[in-house]
Structures are given as C-alpha cells and as structure tokens.
Amino acid sequence: MMMILCAVTSIVLLATLTTAAVDDTCMRYGLDIDQPGASCSDIYQKNPSIQDQSGYYLIKTDHLFLAHCEMGDNGWMKVADFDASRGDKCPTGWTDITVNNIRMCRSPSNTAGCYSRTFPVHGTSYRKIRGKLRGYQKYTTDGFNGAISINAAYVDGVSITIGNPRKHVWTFAVGISDDQDNPGNVCPCAANPKSAPPSFVGEHYYCESGNTGPYEDTIYTSDPLWDGAGCVHPNNNCCTNVGLPWFIREFPIAQDDDIEVRICTNSDYSNEAVLVDQLELYVQ
Fold it and tell me: pTM score, two decimals?
C-alpha cells in the first residue's frame, strides 16, 4: 500500500512540478508518504529544492492529505480557489446566477440573513490568512448597518471568520453609493460616509459600492467590488488601499480553525443582495 500511495502521489506531483523537482520523489520531504510536512511553510523551509515549485504536497495533521502549496513567500496552503468566469461551480451553500453574461453566486434564499460556506484547513496550524474576493452590488446595500453582533448580518457584504465562537478575520462591505449623500448607509471611505464598522471589525475590512449616483433596482455588473478600481469621485477613498484586491490578517498565536465565509444582508433579495464571482484563500 505504501508503494502504491507513493506512486499515486508522484503522478499528482508530476503534473504540477518540473522533472528536476520530482527526481527521487519518494525520498523527499513533503513528497513521501513517510515524510509528510506539517504545513506548506514547513515543507518550504525543510525542502529548499522545491521553494519555487508550486503544486500538491503531502501534509499530516490529525490525518494525511494532499494540499496545494504556493511555494513562494515562505509557503502558503491554498484553502479556496473559486472563479465563476472559468466555469467553477458555486461553493456548496450558495446558488448560481447569471446576469449580463456574468456568472456569479448568491445566497440560496430570498430572505435576509447570512449564508455560510466553510473551507477546511484540515487541522493545519497557521498564523496568517490572506485572500481576495470579487463581488457585485444589487440595489440598496447598506454597508455596515448598525448591528453589533458578529453572529448577525452586521454587514451587507461578506464576512470571513474562524472558530466557534466566531473570530473576525475580514469583512467585505457594500455601500449604497460611491458619492451620494444618502440617508442610508454608505462606506466609511465614501465621499459622504454615513456608517462605521462594529468594534470587532476594526480596520480589517474593505468597502466599496458598484453604484455612482442615485441607486436603482439592478445588479451593477459594470463595476466589480473590492478590486481597487471604479471609485470615481475625488473624495472617495475606497480604492486607495495599497493591499487591494488582497487582504492579509495575522494572528498573535497559531490557529487551526476552518475558515467560514458568509454572504450577508439585513433585508431580503427584493431590496438588496451581494453576489460573488471570485474567491481565493490561503493560510501560512
């Protein structure tokens, strides 16, 4: 069984690594069933010959599994990689929708609330999470809407958390307009800000609107959210963060919880929605 598993692993690795990187695969750290790594970063540090070779490696926590490792910047384990434009199906728990020839995912219900998808890390220990998300606005999204519980729909947007009880990682909020002085909630970074994030979010968020001017009952497909572009008003600072479209969150102590991603709104679909077509998550 060991020889069969090693051979299968070698085939997987051969599809992603150069010939030089898989020479004597069954004798290499992270490539041998008898020498699995503890994480992508661990493999990166202990196997210098593969530090520029991204692909699948063997990791063992409470069980043995194949992980896709991005072997740069000390090694990152891929946790989620979804892109509807290349034909990927929506993650379980979300629903497929196509608008203006753009495929995207929405909540599976027309009622308000948060709709969750959890991405496993298989017990891998990490201190950093990085990722990016792209989405779209429908109608009257309110950004941060005044709710103060991390378990509630505190945002019209996407909430990323870990653990139980939940610990905040990052929030992607959607304001109602980039530039209008609207009585509803807009982004804290917009030209006429009206809302602030709850204390547990702090500065760990991005916020943008796909709409400029008065809002309409439509999905604003012409301006994707959280991509660092489309903030046309000179007093709007929602696209100026140097990290966009990526976020990174570092924790003072190691974590091993799976990552939960929730699409949230505090009103039903007829009034507002947040839709997602790209998501990437990595841990280190």
Answer: 0.90
